[in-house]
Amino acid sequence: MLDAIGLGSLDDLFEQIPASVRLDGRLALPDGVSELEIVDELRGLAARNRHVDDLVCFAGAGAYDHYVPSVVWALAGRSEFSTAYTPYQPELSQGVLQALFEFQSMICALTAMEVSNASLYDGATALVEAVNMARSGARSRVLVSEGVDPRLVETLRTYGTGPGYEPEVFAAVDGRGGSPEVGDDVAAVIVQHPNVLGILEPAAELFERARAGGAKAIQVFDPLSLGVLAPPGQLGADIAVAEGQSLGNHLAFGGPYLGLIAAGMSDVRRLPGRIVGETVDVDGRPGYVLTLQAREQHIRREKANSNICTNQTLMAVAATIYLGWLGPDGLAEVGRRCAAKASYAAERLTGIPGVSLVHPAAPFFKEFAIRVPGRADALVEALVERGYLAGVPLASAGEDVLLVAVTERRSREQIDGLVAAVGKALA
Amino acid sequence: MSSIGAPIRRQGPARPRTIRDRSAAGRRAFSFPALDVPEAPIPPEHARTTPPDLPEVAEVELVRHYTDLAQMNYGLDTGMYPLGSCTMKHNPKAAETVAGFPGFQRLHPLQPDTTTQGVLELLWRLERALCEITGMARATMQPPAGACGEMTGLLLMRAYHEDRGDARRRVIIPDSAHGTNPASVRLAGFEAVPVRSDARGLVDVGALAKLVDESVAGLMLTNPNTLGLFEEEIEEIAATIHGVGGLLYYDGANLNAILGRCRPGDMGFDIVHINTHKTFATPHGGGGPGAGPVGVREELVPYLPTPTVERTDDGSFSLARGGPRSIGRMHGFHGNVGILVRAYAYVFLHGADGLRNVSELASLNANYLAQLVRGDFPLAFPDLRPMHEFVATAKPLRDATGVKAMDVAKRVIDLGFHPSTVYFPLVVDEAMMVEPTETESKETLEAFADALHTAAEEARDHPELLREAPVTTPVRRLDEAKAARSLTLRW
Asked: Which residue, among B30, B124, B385, would best test binding to A if mutated, counting the most A CBs under 10 Å from its CB?
C-alpha cells in the first residue's frame, strides 16, 4: 500500500506535522492488552460498585429504577441500530427513521402535545433548549418554580450565561404553587409537575397565569406519570420537556439518557434537534426523512437556535419499544403501581417516630420528601450497610430531608424491609 | 466487480407500516405482579381522562416489527461506512460486554460515593488517559456529545476572559468548519468571525493576522482540518492568537488522525473536546449517544464544570463540587457514563502503541483509497497530502456527464456500499468526503474503489443508472421537499 502511494514508510504519512510539535517518544499509557484482560479489568472495577440489584433502590430525583423489559434491548441493541450513523442517507436508514417517527408519535400521544423532536441529550439540557425556544426580543426573563429540581436550575444557570439570562426562582407555598409576576419582559414560566419533592403542582393555574402574561408555559414532566396524570397538553403547557430515562433506559450512573421535548405546531420551526417527517419516494412508496433541516446548525450555522447535532437516537429507539411494550393499559398500570406503592411507603415510613412528611397536606405521585432525625446523608450511608439505597438527600430543602422514590419494581416486602431498617438505624 | 458491503433487506411485500398499524384493542406485551399494597387513587383534578394513543400489541408483534425496521437499516456491522468527518470505525464488541456489567449499568447517579468507587476510579483513570493523549491538565466527562463539548469549551473561554475583566466578543472559525462551531459560538454569547482557507486548503495565516485584535476571545480549529489536511502553520496560528491574549480551542473531530503522533496541547491548544464515538469507537447509535469530554490547560482548571472526580489522600474517589469559578453544570448528572465505559475499554485495549497504530493505518487507508479513486474523482486540494480522510470532487464527472455527487452516492448504494459524505465541506464544489478509517482491510478499500469506478463508468455510458439509483433499497429516492412542505411528523 505504501508503494502505491509512493511512500517509503508510515512515518512519511506524517511529514506535514512540523517536527517541533511531534510527540517525542510514546504516550505515557500502558501497553495494549488482550480482550480478556480488559474485560477482567473492567469486571474488577464494576465489582467495586454496589449496584441496585444489590441495594434495594428507593433513589430517584430524576433517575428511576423502573423495570426494563427484556424485549427493549434485545431489539434496540441490534447492531443495525446501534452501529449506524445519523440517517443522512435515508434509503439506507429507514429503520432508524421510522423508529424515530414512531417515537415522535408516541411522545405526542403521551403528552397530548402536537409535535415532538427525535430526542435531546437529557432532561436538564432539554429544559435549556425549551428556554432558548421561548426567549425572543424583549421577552428575556425566565421564571422558575421553587419546585423545579435544583440540578435543572443549575444547568439552566450555566447555559444561560451564554445568551445572558439568569433563571429567577419564585417561591412555592407549602411545597407547591406560587404567584409568579408575569410581566411583558418574561419569556417563560417553568413548572415541574410532579415537582422535585414528588408533589402534584396546580400546574393548570400556573400555566394560565404564564400565558395570560404572554409568556411561554414550560412543564417539566415525568413520562411514566402520564398513564394516570393529566398530560401537559391538557394542562396548558406550551412546551413540555422531560428526562426520558425511565422509558426503557438503564440507570447507568446518569447516562446515556434522553431528553424529551414537545410543543405546539406553531412552534415547530423553533424546535431544536432532529425531526423526522413522512414522505414518499419516486415510486410513491411511503418513507421517512430528516426534515425541516433549515432550522439546524449545519444549514443556519451561527443563526441556528440550537447547536445540537448528535442526539440520543438509540435511547429514543429503546423508549419507543418500551412504550410499545406498555401500550395505554401498561402505562396506566405502571402509574397506578407507583402511586400505590409510594403512598404505602410514605404511610409506613412516617409511622417511625421522628419521621414526617415535609409537606403532609400535599398530594404526591411516586416520590415524597421526609424529614428524618439527624442528617439525611448519614441515614443513607447507614442504610447502605443494611442493603438499601434509601433515597436521595435533598440538601436544598434541608440537611434532614430525604427524597424517597418508589417505582412499580418495589414489592411490599421490600418496602416493609426498608421501614424496618430505617427504624433500626434511627433507634 | 466485487461488492462485499452486505446489502440491506430489499423491497418486500406490503407489510404493516407503523407499530400502530399492528395494534388491536386489548392485546398486550406487558405483565406486572399482582398489586400487593392498597390502591392510592389519583386526585380527580390531576387525573388523566383520555388514554394516550399508544399501540396495543403482543410481544411477538413488537419483536417482528422492530426486527423488520432493524433489517431496513445499514450499520457498521453491515459494511464499510466511509462517511468523511464521521470516523465510522469498527466498534469492538468487548466494549459492549463491559458496559453491560450490572456494576456499571445498574448504578443510580446519586448513590453515595462510598458505593460507586469502581466507576469513579474508571472516570478518574479515563480522564488522565485523555489528558495524556491530548496534552491537557484536567478534563470534564460531562458533555454528552461533541457539540455540547464545544459549548462547554466556549463557556470556559468566556469565564476565563471575564475573570480577567476582559469582555471579549469574537471567536474566529475557519470557513470550512462544521456548522456546530458557529452555532455554539453564538449560543455561548460570542460573535462568529470566519477566516478563509487559502488555495492549499489551510487557514490563510495572512488573513487571520488581519482579523486578530484584542477583541478576539479565541480561535476554534480542527487539526487535521475539515479537509483532512494538517494545518502545518499551527505554531504561527497559535502565536497569533496567544499574542492578543486569545485562547485556542481544538475541535477533536479529527483527533483519530494524530493519535500518538502529536498532541493538541503541544501544538498550543488550550481547550480540547473529544468525540468518543469517533476517536474511541463508541457506537454511534444511529445518531447518538456520543460523549464529548473536554480537556483544558492548567490555567483553565478552576472553571471546569461541577462536579469533578477527585482522588483523596487515602486513595478513595469522590465527586467534588467545583469552586466559585466553576462554570456550573453541563449535564443533569455525570455525562454519558455508559459511553465513557466503552471509551475506557477502547483506550486501554489499544494502549500507547495501539493508539499510534490507529492513526498510522487511518492515514494509510485514506491515502491508498485516494490514490485508487483519483482518476475519476480528483482531490479538491491536491497540493497537500491528506491524512485520515480526503475531500475529492465529482466536478469533472459532472461537467462531462451532468451526473452529480449525490447521484454517484446513490448508485454506490446499489453497488453494495454506504456512500461517502457528499456536499460537505461547503467550500468544495461537488464534494465527496471519504474517511475509510483504520479498521477496513485493503480488499474492502479496493472493492469500494471498484464501486466508485463502476459508477463513474456508468455515468458516461448509462447515466440513468445513477440518476434513478438506488433501486435495491426498501425505498428509493425520497421527496424531501414534500416532507418539509406538508409536515407529517407523527401518526
From this structure: B30
Residue B212: inside a domain, yes or no?
A: yes
Are residues B39 and A344 in contact, defined by beta-carbon separation less than 8 angstroms? no
Whether A253 has its CB under 8 Å from any CB of chain B: the answer is yes
Domain span including residue B420: 353-480
DSSP code, position A68: -
Closest to A272 (Cα-Cα) out of A233, A311, A244:
A311
Cα–Cα distance for residue pair A270/A290, rounded to 1 Å: 16
Best residue of B45, B71, B111 to probe chain A, by most A CBs closer than 10 Å = B111
Nearest chain A residue (CA) to B121: A45
Q: Does A122 touch chain B (CB under 8 A)?
A: yes
- B353 interface with A at CB cutoff 8 Å: yes
First to last CA, chain A: 75
Q: What gap in Å lies between CA B308 and CA A326, rounded to an integer?
A: 38
Q: Which of A187, A177, A222, A241 is nearest to A339 (CA)?
A: A222
- With respect to residue A167, please indicate whether it lies within any of the assigned structural domains: yes
Check CB contact of A86 with chain B, cutoff 8 Å.
yes
Q: How high does pLDDT run on average in chain B?
A: 95
Searching chain A, which residue's CA lies closest to the CA of residue B105?
A: A252
Please report whether residue A161 resides in a domain: yes
Count of A–B CB contacts within 8 Å?
668
Sheet of B138-140: strands edge to edge? B138-140, B294-296, B271-274, B247-252, B216-221, B170-174, B191-195
Annotate B212-245 with b (16+ C-beta within 10 A) or e (fewer).
beeebbbbbbbbbbbbbbbbbbbebbbebbeeee
Q: Taking Cα atoms as reference points, which of B82, B80, B434, B367 lies closest to residue A10?
A: B367
Task: Flag residues of chain A having pLDDT under 70.
Answer: none
CATH number where A289 lies:
3.40.640.10
Residue type, B150: E
CATH of the domain at A370: 3.90.1150.10
Task: With CB atoms and an 8 Å threshold, state whether B186 touches A302.
Answer: yes
Is residue B297 domain-shared with residue B401, that is, in the same domain? no
Chain B: residue nearest A162 by CA? B188
Contact B147 A308 (CB under 8 A): yes
Task: Among B162, B478, B479, B486, pick the best mutation site for testing chain A contact (most A Cβ within 10 A).
Answer: B478
Mean pLDDT of B313-327: 96
What digits encode the pLDDT tens for the residues B219-247?
999 999 989 999 999 999 999 999 999 99
Residue B391, phi then psi, degrees to nearest 5: -105, 115
Residue A11 lies in a domain: no
- Element housing A214 (H / E): none
Position A21 in a domain: no
DSSP string, A343-400: HHHHHHHTTSTT-EESSTTS-BSSEEEEE-SS-HHHHHHHHHHTTEE--EE-GGG-TT
User: Are B133 and B278 contained in the same domain?
Assistant: yes
Confidence band, pLDDT 50/70/90 cuts, at residue B178:
confident
Partner residue opposite A92 with nearest CB, options B8, B20, B65: B8
Shared domain for B206 and B235, answered yes or no, is yes
Return the closest-CA partner of residue A415 out of A366, A338, A368, A348: A348
**E strand or H helix that includes residue A337:** helix A313-349
| B335-363: pLDDT as tens digits | 999 999 999 999 999 999 999 999 999 99
Which residues of chain A have a CB within 8 Å of the CB of B145? 121, 308-311
Q: Which H helix or E strand runs over A234? A: helix A232-235
- Scanning A28-138, the segments in alpha helix (DSSP H) are 35-47, 70-76, 79-82, 94-111, 123-134
Check residue B1 and give its pLDDT: 36
Q: Which residue has the cell 502503541?
A: B353
By C-alpha distance, the chain B residue nearest A326 is B30
The answer to whether B320 and B340 are in contact (CB under 8 A) is no
